[in-house]
Design a protein that fits this description.
The chain is an alpha/beta fold. It contains six helices and eight strands. The strands form two sheets. Strands 1-2-3-4-8-5 form a six-stranded mixed sheet, covered by helices on one side. Strand 6 and strand 7 form a beta hairpin. Helix 3 crosses helix 4, helix 4 runs antiparallel to helix 5 and helix 5 packs across helix 6. The longest helix has 33 residues. It is globular, with a radius of gyration of 21 Å. The relative contact order is 0.09.
Length: 218
């Protein structure tokens, strides 16, 4: 597989005024236009099967443009890398596909969900090696050279540490803003305050609150 594009923290906006939007950890596209959503989850609650379903459906909504045929939708892969074995069968990987119960055959709609067991240990298995590297504190102890080089740069060089610190600051600020917007949407839905009051209570610009309310900017 040759990856052509990778985007970290890509946003998917819900079209419903009070609908839940989505920020995915890693968005990638390969040379066949297959789309990959890769999520790293330390807590098991963050890898609930219903969340995987939600991620898959949100990605599908962005696949087709107006007047495109449904058959033109690309395959999608939602991949959860979890700290523990959340599905509990001891497998390194769990591949989830829709199946026709009566025939036992795959539905073949191109939707894929994969859980990666982060607690899996087997240094003779490719997945086991990768999970070993995920748990490593030092790049010197890693199996995969590409991953080791990146970890060494971001954790052990001044320039890399500066990039990581800035990235975490940007992410924290982004999450705070999204929480403010979610609060504003709830207040708008209740309809008990003016937009100006909501802007003051949420510390958001009035233009942003108007946008959330579906109003035209003055």
């Amino acid at each position: 597989m040759k990856v052509l594009e990778v985007v970290a923290q890509r946003e998917y906006k819900n079209l419903l005024p009070d609908g839940r939007s989505l920020t995915i950890d890693i968005y990638a596209v390969d040379k066949e236009d297959k789309v990959y959503d890769i999520e790293v989850q330390r807590a098991s609650v963050g890898a609930d099967v219903h969340r995987a379903r939600f991620h898959s459906s949100m990605i599908d909504t962005k696949m087709l443009k107006a007047r495109q045929e449904f058959k033109e939708i690309h395959d999608s892969y939602v991949i959860f890398i979890t700290a523990s074995d959340v599905l509990g069968a001891g497998c390194p990987l769990y591949h989830v596909k829709r199946m026709i119960e009566e025939t036992g055959t795959y539905f073949g709609d191109g939707s894929h969900i994969i859980y990666v067991n982060g607690s899996y240990k087997d240094d003779n298995d490719p997945v086991g090696k990768l999970m070993h590297d995920f748990r490593c504190l030092s790049s010197a102890d890693m199996f995969y050279p590409v991953l080791a080089r990146q970890v060494k740069y971001f954790k052990e060089t001044e320039g890399g540490r500066e990039i990581m610190c800035q990235a975490f600051e940007d992410l924290a600020e982004k999450r705070v803003t999204e929480e403010k917007k979610a609060f504003a949407r709830r207040l708008i839905a209740r309809g008990k305050q003016t937009l100006e009051e909501i802007a003051e209570d949420t510390d958001l610009p009035i233009e942003e609150v108007r946008k959330l309310a579906g109003l035209q900017l003055a």
